[in-house]
Specification:
Length: about 240
Amino acid sequence: MSTDTPFTKENLDTALKELGKEFRKLNGTKMPAELILIGGAAILANYGFREVTYDIDAIILASSAMKDAINHVGDRMGLPGNWLNADFQKTTSFSNKLLEVSVYYKTFSNILTIRTVAAEYLIAMKLMSGRQYKFDLSDIAGILWEHQKNGKPISREAINKAIITLYGENATLPDVSQKMIDDAFTDGNYEGAYTKIRESEKQAKDILVDFDKTHPGELKGENINAILEQAKKRRK
């Protein structure tokens, strides 16, 4: 697998299986490990609408041998150095409560347990992040869409409860996230929302790529939304 090859559901499981083997080899069998998949990896593990992700975000609960195991598997499979990381714990979407609301996925080599995040908590996390240039908002529509198709719709109340559980009673969502979830439940056409938002995300990414080319070094996390809004106004 080359460094620019994305993870699919199939090679996600392959990488985790190899990680389980390597961790067992380095760590022995006395001290098991857990990974809690979030973000794109959790979407791949649980749903069919999202085809790829480019890294695996996770909460890592393991001995120091896990770091070496991750590096060894990455080298063997030709993956980038950060193919599995916990960087999201520095973002606004992280919550210590994720440990409590995670659900079982699979176990590899009888030592590495993989857990994911249930639907309403995934939605809560992506609402809190609300990045217009990533898959955050389309992932929300996709989750709502799949649950609707499967006859197990997710209620607004369940999402509100998940937000409070993860972020507290006074949690405030980004404006773009609040509008998206309000519109989705008002309209009820989650498939249409997914398609529309996905296209908007592609356009947003293109805008930021172009901006970075013409204004190198000026693109910062705190000015991304302002840049996108200005570009949208100009296009209108």
